[in-house]
Amino acid sequence: MTERAKLLTALFFIASSTLLLTGCSELPGETGGGPYLGQELPGTEPVIFAEGIVSTGLYTRDLAMTPDGSEIYFCSIVGNYAYTAIFGTRLENGRWTEPATLDFACDPAWMNIEPAIHPDGSRFFFISNRPDTASGKADGDQDIWVADRTTEGWSDAYNLGAPVNSAAPEYFPSITRDGTIYFTREEPGTRMSRIFRARPDGDGFAEPERLPDHVNTTSAQFNAFIDPDERFLIVCAFGRKDSRGSTDYYITFRSEDDKWSELVNMGEPVNTESGLEYSPYISPDGKYFFFMSSRKKPAQDTDILPLTRMHMMEMHNSPGYGNPAVWWMEAAFIDSLAETSCE
Fold first, then answer.
1. Residue 201 maps to which CATH number?
2. Residue 296 sits in which domain range?
3. Residue 49 · residue 38 · CB < 8 Å
């Protein structure tokens, strides 16, 4: 071991011990008041969102917020989706609560991921493969579930039902202000998936329609986020020739007469060679773009330390070392992509 490596190792152990001794107020994940968990606002380059609070080293994805930004939800995963849960934190008396699992989205027997909130805050959508006992469906498949806002929080969850849910797997709901739902439907027994939407119809939804082929361009489009005013759609697409990784974020813009532009790769610095980039979200105020990525955060002094067991455990319990985390950046660049789509 070189003298520099020895010195950095010693400093690393001292820093770790200091964190253990100084108490919670000194931990990097501590939150105060203010929007976005009190985090320093990002610029034009992506940074990890809420390190130590939301992005912790666990496989983390799927951000959602209430319209006023006072509640934030996200999903964490263990063991290649063997265990999944949705967590929430809210601003109370000027402080953010410690993230905790939702009562209806923490049963280890079932998948619980992909939270989405109606732009008016009235409904909470998510994905689960639990059985739909209310309709007598004993065998669960991947469906969209929903809970309603009540005076005491969220109601018990229930299956959204037909025609949005079907015998095929459905997932990643995203909702417009008028209640139109966009979602992914996968063809049973295959890995082929397409983006659909369903307009509101009375107390339910009209028959879903598949978006056109120039939006569904490959065998796998999925996890699409719709702008609340339906101006654009951010799509995750696998296997396109212009992809930087196996899956990239793309965007398509909608005209007033309901025509969609060709997909535009959202480019650097959003997309990387990482294949784990497939959960987009834009804050209710439209200012910030959040997205899942397994990219490595910029190099730091600890990167040249020898890979001791303690060092590797520290890396494992920190975001930005290979497990997906939630990143965020200013969303203003989307306007320039609209110009590109018209060229």
1. 2.120.10.30
2. 46-341
3. no
Is the residue at 28 inside a domain?
no
- Asked if pLDDT for residue 298 goes beyond 90, the answer is no
Res 337: pLDDT: 94
In angstroms, rounded to a whole number, what is the distance separating the alpha carbons of residues 121 and 112? Answer: 20
Compute the average pLDDT of residues 206-226.
97
Higher pLDDT, 154 or 135: 154
* Contact status, residue 99 vs residue 86, Cβ threshold 8 Å: no
pLDDT range class, residue 301, cuts 50, 70, 90: low
Our count of domains for the chain comes to 1
* pLDDT at residue 124 in the model: 98
